[in-house]
Amino acid sequence: MTPNRTILFCPLDWGLGHACRSVYYIRKLLEKGHRVIIAADKTPLSFLRKEFPDLEWVRFPSYYSIRYSSILPMFMMAPFYFLKIITGSVREHSFLKKLLKSHKPDIVISDNRFGLWNKKKTTIYITHQVCIRMPKWAKFLEKSVYKLHRWIIRKYDRCWIPDNQGPDNLSGELSGKFPLPSNASFTGIASRFLLTENKLLGKSNPYDIVVILSGPEPQRAILENKLLNILHDSDKKIFLLRGKPGETEIPQHNYNIKMANHLPSRNISVLLSQAGTIICRSGYTMIMDLAALNKKALLIPTPGQTEQEYLASYMNKCGRHISLPQKNLSELWIKLKELKALKPKPSLIQPTTLLQQQ
């Protein structure tokens, strides 16, 4: 990729995962001498503006943000979500044309936004989920959905898969069940904690348990409340990061639990590196971050989010983490004992090929 290009970087607005891994990509692009414009909305925009206060930004509406129901099962909401994604992709494709005229980028990078391809510009699509995981009742649709996703991926000039190629990958069947599109390539694990500025561990007051929350509402809040009810009587020293960078108010809780809405990446790196035990969602970005720090965790997938449920199960089978369904939180202390007994695994970090061949 020729230096001094203007790049419009557009992460998906489903929780903080896509924005968090965007930090790695944006930093690498800046190191290569490119000008990066952040195009995001809501929580991801708030997060990235804190990470890159000097970068230009533009609000790119979240046309198909998903809010998981706390009452209705996922299969009842699926048709609505599918329709929302299709119509949202059309709308963001149209909105991109306006941004191309106003900001004149040379390259558009979409982190899992489906509609940001353009015939007149170089476009790059980032995804770890070439095969979109379907729920059990819709398993027969998985190959058809893969073909639809492959068709979308081929609209872009390139597809970056943030993972290792081969048996030591983190995404499992999400990138390996079906053949990759011809324009796709593995770039290595993309974690902000691999960046030099986030590796300064230093010293801090270590916590017995560190909880990292993320993901769409209301499930993020539901997990927070359930964990607080379980942990508040513990004699453990606990830190809970709420994953709400746009908020300033922090709920008051017991003396043994310290809470924060958001922390800079360097602070989170220190927090996780020195944590006795980590509890978090099984989002793919979080799994990459754990691999970057070579830490094990108790993974609690977002209910109904098939990708997270698969990744939690896959990591459990690989012996890298312990998984626990949210509905079984009564088993939390039992699972934490299993996690403590889990033997460490070799580091999965390999030299990145990001941008070397681009």
Order of strands in the sheet with most strands? 3-2-1-4-5-6-7
Q: What sequence of helices (H) and strands (E) makes up the elements?
A: EHEHEHEEHEHEEHEEHEHEHEH
Care to count the β-strands? 13
Work out the radius of gyration. Answer: 20 Å
Instruction: Return the average pLDDT rounded to an integer.
Output: 88
Q: End-to-end span in angstroms?
A: 5 Å
Number of domains: 2
Which residues form runs of ≥5 with pLDDT under 50? none
- How big a fraction of the residues is strand? 5-15%
Biggest sheet descriptor? 7 strands, parallel
Tag the structure with descriptive keywords.
alpha/beta; seven-stranded parallel beta sheet; Rossmann fold; 2 domains; 358 residues
Describe this structure in words.
With about 350 residues, the chain is of the alpha/beta class. The protein folds into two domains: about 5-195, Glycogen Phosphorylase B (Rossmann fold), CATH 3.40.50.2000; about 200-340, Rossmann fold (3-Layer(aba) Sandwich), CATH 3.40.50. Helix content is about 35%, strand content about 15%. The protein contains ten helices and 13 strands. The strands form two sheets. The chain has a seven-stranded parallel sheet, with helices on one face. A six-stranded parallel sheet has the order 10-9-8-11-12-13, with helices on both faces. Helix 4 links the parallel strand 5 (about 120-125) and strand 6. Helix 1 (about 15-30) packs parallel to helix 2 (about 40-50).
Short summary of the structure?
With 358 residues, this protein is of the alpha/beta class.
Q: How are the elements arranged and paired?
A:
Elements: E1 6-11, H1 17-31, E2 35-40, H2 42-51, E3 56-59, H3 74-103, E4 107-111, E5 122-126, H4 142-155, E6 158-161, H5 173-176, E7 184-186, E8 209-212, H6 219-231, E9 238-241, E10 257-260, H7 265-273, E11 277-280, H8 284-293, E12 298-299, H9 306-318, E13 322-323, H10 332-341
Parallel strand pairs: 1-2, 1-4, 2-3, 4-5, 5-6, 6-7, 8-9, 8-11, 9-10, 11-12, 12-13
Helix pairs in contact: 1-2
